[in-house]
């Protein structure tokens, strides 16, 4: 796949999306968002990919925000369409059946922060700065930032960040629970790839089921969340990986997970 504003590559079972508008600090233009939408649709059909990594080109920015030159021209109706487009695409990112790791290699502001929040977890370089500064433009987050940030760090901390527009250092973001780990810039991708490979070595169905249980369960009360977990747990047994994993444990050997997500979905439909 070849695009104007995004670099896409596959390294065995791992896909890497690199936002590639370095002169604009990888700002999210509508053209870039359209390309990302196409890539995410294509990834759903790629059975060989087990993990996705998002990062930015250069050493200054992951994504410095939405393209202000485009935002400046919006009216009420076009702003509503723009926000819905951003929410739709980041929603697709969050709903991917594979884990998504965000490698924040610099500024992750506004739409960039919201893009990172749509990933399953965030690793950041020491020079990273993260925040939702839309309030300084007379605006507010529109790509899901008010909702995802509050769910991640709590209502009061989210309000403080949104109302002030302050940026967090990578270390402060880690202490707040927004970022999982911080690394030197020159070793960020090495460490992200190490974790991606570790995840990719696990069973596809069990990873997908665990992701669904966590993501959907957070919007439920505990009782219904636990019921969802039961269903997701049971679906793991529709994959040959459940048998392989437990057998490998009993035989004191390393498991070799080969279960296919697509085939499992077909089997599950037949069972239901």
Q: What is the count of DSSP helices, taking H or I runs of 4+ residues?
A: 12
What is the radius of gyration?
A: 19 Å
Biggest beta sheet summary: 6 strands, mixed
Characterize the overall form: globular
- Flag low-confidence runs: 264-272
Record the strand order, biggest sheet.
1-2-3-5-7-10
Structural class: alpha/beta
| Straight-line distance between termini | 36 Å
Question: Summed up, what is this model?
Answer:
The protein is an alpha/beta fold. The protein has helices at 30-44, 68-71, 76-95, 111-117, 145-153, 155-164, 170-176, 188-200, 204-217, 222-235, 240-250, 261-271; strands at 6-11, 14-19, 51-56, 61-63, 100-104, 107-109, 121-125, 129-131, 167-169, 181-183. It has a six-stranded mixed beta sheet, sandwiched between helices.
């Amino acid at each position: 796949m070849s695009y104007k504003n995004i670099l896409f590559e596959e390294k065995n079972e791992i896909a890497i999306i690199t936002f590639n508008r370095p002169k604009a600090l990888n700002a999210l233009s509508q053209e870039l968002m359209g390309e990302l939408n196409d890539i995410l649709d294509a990834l759903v059909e790629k059975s060989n990919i087990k993990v996705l990594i998002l990062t930015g080109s250069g050493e200054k920015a992951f994504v410095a925000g939405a393209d202000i030159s485009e935002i400046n021209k919006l009216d009420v109706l076009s702003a509503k369409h723009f926000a819905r487009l951003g929410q739709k695409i980041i929603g697709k990112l969050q709903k991917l059946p594979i884990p998504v790791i965000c490698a924040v290699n610099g500024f992750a502001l506004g739409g960039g922060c919201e893009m990172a929040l749509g990933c399953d977890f965030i690793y950041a370089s020491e020079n990273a700065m993260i925040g939702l500064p839309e309030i300084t433009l007379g605006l507010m987050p529109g790509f899901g930032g008010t909702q995802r940030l509050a769910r991640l760090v709590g209502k009061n901390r989210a309000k403080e960040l949104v109302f002030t527009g302050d940026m967090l250092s990578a270390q402060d973001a880690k202490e707040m629970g927004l970022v999982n780990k911080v690394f030197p810039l020159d070793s960020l991708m090495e460490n992200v790839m190490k974790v991606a490979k570790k995840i990719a070595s696990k069973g596809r169905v069990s990873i997908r089921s665990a992701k669904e249980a966590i993501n959907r369960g957070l919007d439920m009360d505990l009782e219904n969340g636990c019921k969802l977990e039961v269903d997701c747990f049971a679906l793991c047994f529709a994959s040959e990986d459940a048998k392989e994993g437990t057998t490998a444990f009993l035989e004191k050997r390393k498991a070799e997970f080969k279960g296919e997500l697509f085939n499992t979905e077909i089997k599950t439909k037949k069972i239901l």
